[in-house]
Amino acid sequence: GRGHGEVLYLAMIYGLRKAWMDQEGTDLIPIPLAKRMGFPMNITGHSDMWAYTLSAEQLNAYGLDPSFDTRIENHPMSGLRAMAALKQDDYTSQYGLMEPLDEGRTRPHCIIGSTPFGTLSGVLPHTTTDLPISHAATFYETPVVGWAFQDKQFSDKTNHKYYLRINRVGLDYAAAVVGLIREYNFKRLGVVTSGTNRKFVRDLQDGLDSASDIELWVEDMSLENECSDGSFDEACHKKVINSMTRLKEQDARIIIHEQGALTQLDNYWTIFADLLRNDTLLIQVGVLGDCLTPMLPPTTGEYGLDVLWENIRKASNMNNRGGWDQMPGDCRVCPNWAFRDLPTSALHNRTKVAEYTSQRTETIYEWSSFCPEKPTMEDILYNCTWCDQYADFWITPACEDELEKMREQLAGSLCIGVTRKDNDTMIDKWEQYLSGLSAADLIAAGAPADFFELFSASHPMFQSTNVTLASLWQGAWRQEFRAKAALIDALLLAIVAFNDWVRAAGDSDASLSSTSLRVGFRTTHNTAIINWLETVRGSSFSGLTGDVAFNPSQERKVDYTVYSAHGPHLALAPVASFVVGQGLAFTSAPVFNNGESTPPPDREPKCPAGSQYTRETRGC
């Protein structure tokens, strides 16, 4: 696609290329100037068109403009073509793949991974773009540097030998949970897990194995893939409610919920089981945003799009509406497109907000598909008390009772997330550098010029939004850049590793080539290819996301923080830290749902004389 979001990626990628070519200092490029080898940095293989979800013929059949923008933005084909070193052909021309000329074509030294965002399709290769890339990389022997996906399957180096991951992913949550269980001496526990990866439950069982008196119920949903919002499957999401309901029937008081880090919807579905109350405790792991996002975030835009409101918007709109209507609950959310697209100053004009939002088309869908409650500009202007022009989402009144239930049931719950160790100083330096680059600077560094036509006075998008490159850096891009800082570190890893490789005479002759193509049908290759992977995997530097180094699973070393949820937004405040191999350390006392600092018991206390406990009533 060609929107402001795509331009941000290009600004980061080609801004880094410019910084390298211009020999910027170590505050941006963590290699001493005296040790830099001065090699060129070439970026190829990405596309300016990707693949159509509907062909021109299909669009015509629906009575739509055949040039309509219905592109899938995340597509593995450009990465596959790059590794295969395919020559230019009709596919190259059709989709505008930015590939080198045939005579200069080789395999790339590495592939930088994609993101889980910006996809209009529920097809697996599009929603988890890095997955087919990583499988192909094992054959083509090309390192893939992921920076956004949290899927646990990438840590399996039998299947993903060439995949390294810059973003920190929690693979030791069970150790932190065991620390909490031992701290509070819990003996009866319920566990809800998707079943897509059973490592968490196995590690939990192993960690508690020495305590033979512990009773553990495991509700394994046996899913093939984590439940998502973009491709909404009501049967998948109902399994969360059903699992919680079965734990309620067992009168489980301590519930451990392993989420899939794709959406915040699991928090919403939990309330419909009526399991949680003031004598229960919910412990969550694998949460989208690693517990840094409030469960009910303010609609100020400060938490981006990894929030419950965006999940509800995507799950309940367009083709998903039928499935959403079969779920319990009535909550729906309308997007304020003006908040996303226009400069902050434009939001002062309520009429402009209503006009822009109601007239904006998202792919092939008009405004009424996203907000049937207020389908026209007039409805927004004159008949909507909850359409706050300064809010990024408009939450319908139908949500109120359900959101209040969330506040009642989820207050005092605990959330275990990966500890963030971002280098704020380096992030600020990079933001300052990138925001100072003009469109001409980025185009001169190799960025495709037509993407930057969005900022031309003659372009329809500029005429409707008046958004400039500078205004984006002053507004929406500041938060988005921080959220995507791992992309810069992924690119820096490639530079740091290749600089070490060249200093050690790598790629200096054919026998030391790390990008040699296979010859014949046999799987023979230069040993340099394996040595190049070892160089990448052994590289370390101080990056935007902290000190970058890899463990034997080619993952970042991870520590954990324990948070407690409170307040009208169910904001999560840190109360403890957990370091693998060292244990749990509290920094403040958590306050549980009953308002006390003592956790609820894991079973009903002994009943008084004249009454008896029944599981059906969950009490005496």
> How much is the average pLDDT?
88
Number of strands: 17
> Shape from CA axes?
globular
Name the poorly predicted regions.
Answer: 48-54, 119-125
Strand order of the largest sheet: 7-6-8-9-12-15-16-17
Please give the alpha-carbon distance between the first and last residues. 60 Å
Task: Give a structural overview.
The chain is an alpha/beta fold. 34% of the residues lie in helices and 11% in strands. The chain has 24 helices and 17 strands. The protein has an eight-stranded mixed sheet with strand order 7-6-8-9-12-15-16-17, with helices on both faces. The chain has a three-stranded parallel sheet with strand order 3-4-5, with helices on both faces. A hairpin with a 2-residue loop joins strand 13 and strand 14 (546-548). Mean pLDDT is 88; it is low at 48-54 and 119-125.
Summary tags:
620 residues, alpha/beta, three-stranded parallel β-sheet
Secondary structure: elements and pairs:
Elements: H1 4-21, E1 51-52, H2 56-61, E2 71-72, H3 77-84, H4 90-94, E3 111-112, H5 124-127, H6 130-140, E4 144-146, E5 163-165, H7 173-184, E6 188-193, H8 199-207, E7 215-220, H9 234-249, E8 254-258, H10 265-270, E9 281-285, H11 308-316, H12 321-325, E10 333-335, H13 337-341, H14 350-359, H15 367-370, H16 377-382, E11 393-395, H17 400-410, E12 414-418, H18 424-435, H19 439-444, H20 460-465, H21 469-474, H22 476-483, H23 485-503, H24 527-537, E13 541-543, E14 546-548, E15 560-566, E16 571-579, E17 583-586
Parallel strand pairs: 3-4, 4-5, 6-7, 6-8, 8-9, 9-12
Antiparallel strand pairs: 1-2, 10-11, 12-15, 13-14, 15-16, 16-17
Helix pairs in contact: 3-6, 7-8, 23-24
